[in-house]
Design a protein that fits this description.
By secondary structure, this protein is an alpha/beta fold. The chain has two domains: about 230 residues, Alpha-Beta Complex (Spore Coat Polysaccharide Biosynthesis Protein SpsA, Chain A); about 80 residues. Helix content is about 40%, strand content about 20%. The chain has eleven helices and nine strands. Strands 1, 2, 3, 4, 5, 6, 7, 8 and 9 form a nine-stranded mixed sheet that branches. Strand 1, helix 1 and strand 2 form a beta-alpha-beta unit. Helix 8 packs across helix 11.
Length: about 325
C-alpha cells in the first residue's frame, strides 16, 4: 500500500448544499501530480442528505486520490476533527470546513510549508471573507471573529499571549503531533445546537504549543470563506461574542503552570471586572443602537462570567458520570 503524503479532512454538519463547492475545487488542484493524497469527509451527525452527496460523488469518482466518508455521531467539531485525525493516513492533515474554498495551489503550498518548517506543528491559511451581502461598515472591525485571517504576506509564528491562535478553517497539522499532544476528548468540543461555546480549535493548538511546537501563519495557503448574510446579523454576532468570552477562562488557564493558576484567577477576575465596569460606564448610551458596542459588551460580560460558567459545566459532567 502506497504511503499517503497529505490528507484533506472536511468536517461537516448539514453541509449538503456547500460540500460540492469544496469537492469540486479539490478535484482541480494544481502542482499535486507527484503527491499521494486523500480526502476524508467527516459527517458530524448531519440530518440533511450530506451522506447522499458524498455517495453520489464516490459513484463517479475516477481520481487517483480517494474520497472517503466517515460518520461521527457525537455532535461538535472537536469530535469530528479527532475522528479525522484517527482515520487519516497522511502524516500531514489539512482541515477545510464545508464553506472553505481553497485556492488552486492550496495543497501543494501546504505540503511545501511542512517540508520547509520542520518545527511547525500546525500552520494556518490566509483566509478571505466572501460575503453573500456587503458587511455594514460599522461591524468591519469585528469581522476577524468570523474566521477571517489576513495578517499580511509574510509567514510568521503565532504568539498566543499576544494575539491568540488561528481558526481551524484552513488549518494544517502534523498528525503525529496532534495524536501525541491533543487529548482525545477536549473540554471545548465546539458549537452544538443553540450553544455558541466554541474555541475548540484554540484549545487543541494550545496543547500543541505547550509541547514546544511552533504555530505558523502561511499566507501562501489561501482560502475563501463563504459567509452567508445571517452571520452578519446582530443576534448571531452577539451570540458568537458570548461563546468566545465564555471559553476565555479555560484557554487562559491552559497557558499557565499549576502554581500560577490561583494567583492568575484573582488577577484576571479583578481585571475583567474593571474592564466590564469601565466599558459599561463609557458606552451604556450606545448598547442598543451600536452593534459593535453591544457585541463587545457581551464578550466582556461572558469573559467575566467564564470561570463560573465553566465550573457549572464541569460539575454537570461530574454528576452525569458519577
Amino acid at each position: 500500500m502506497n504511503s499517503i503524503d497529505f490528507t484533506i479532512a472536511i468536517p461537516t454538519y448539514n453541509g449538503a448544499s456547500r460540500l460540492p463547492w469544496v469537492l469540486d475545487r479539490l478535484q482541480i488542484q494544481t502542482g499535486v501530480e507527484n503527491l499521494n493524497w486523500e480526502i476524508i469527509v467527516v459527517d458530524n451527525n448531519s440530518i440533511d442528505n450530506t451522506v447522499k452527496i458524498v455517495q453520489d460523488y464516490q459513484k463517479i469518482w475516477n481520481k487517483r486520490f480517494p474520497l472517503k466518508y466517515h460518520f461521527e455521531p457525537k455532535q461538535g467539531a472537536g469530535f469530528a476533527r479527532q475522528l479525522a485525525i484517527e482515520e487519516a493516513r497522511g502524516q500531514i492533515v489539512g482541515f477545510l470546513d464545508d464553506d472553505n474554498i481553497p485556492a488552486y495551489n492550496w495543497i501543494i503550498e501546504a505540503y511545501k510549508f511542512a517540508e520547509l518548517h520542520p518545527q511547525a506543528g500546525a500552520y494556518a491559511s490566509q483566509i478571505h471573507g466572501v460575503f453573500e451581502v456587503e458587511p455594514p461598515e460599522e461591524i468591519k472591525p469585528i469581522l476577524f471573529y468570523l474566521a477571517i485571517t489576513e495578517r499580511g504576506n509574510e509567514p510568521h509564528i503565532y504568539e498566543p499571549r499576544q494575539k491568540g491562535f488561528p481558526p481551524s478553517s484552513g488549518l494544517v497539522v502534523r498528525r503525529n503531533v496532534w495524536k501525541d499532544n491533543v487529548p482525545q476528548h477536549l473540554f471545548l468540543v465546539g458549537r452544538v445546537g443553540s450553544s455558541m461555546l466554541g474555541s475548540e480549535d484554540a484549545e487543541a493548538l494550545l496543547y500543541i504549543h505547550r509541547a514546544g511546537w511552533q504555530i505558523w501563519y502561511n499566507p501562501a495557503m489561501e482560502v475563501d470563506h463563504i459567509i452567508p448574510a445571517w452571520r452578519l446579523e446582530k443576534n448571531y454576532l452577539i451570540s458568537l461574542m458570548c461563546g468566545i468570552g465564555l471559553a476565555r477562562h479555560h484557554l487562559r488557564m491552559l497557558l499557565l503552570k499549576s502554581w500560577q493558576i490561583p494567583f492568575a484567577f484573582i488577577i484576571y477576575f479583578l481585571n475583567d471586572l474593571y474592564k466590564l465596569g469601565s466599558y459599561f460606564l463609557k458606552n451604556r448610551k450606545y448598547l442598543q443602537s451600536h452593534i459593535i458596542t453591544a457585541c463587545e459588551m457581551k464578550r466582556l460580560m461572558a469573559t467575566f462570567y467564564s470561570p463560573f460558567f465553566l465550573l457549572l459545566i464541569r460539575l454537570k459532567k461530574h454528576f452525569q458520570f458519577n
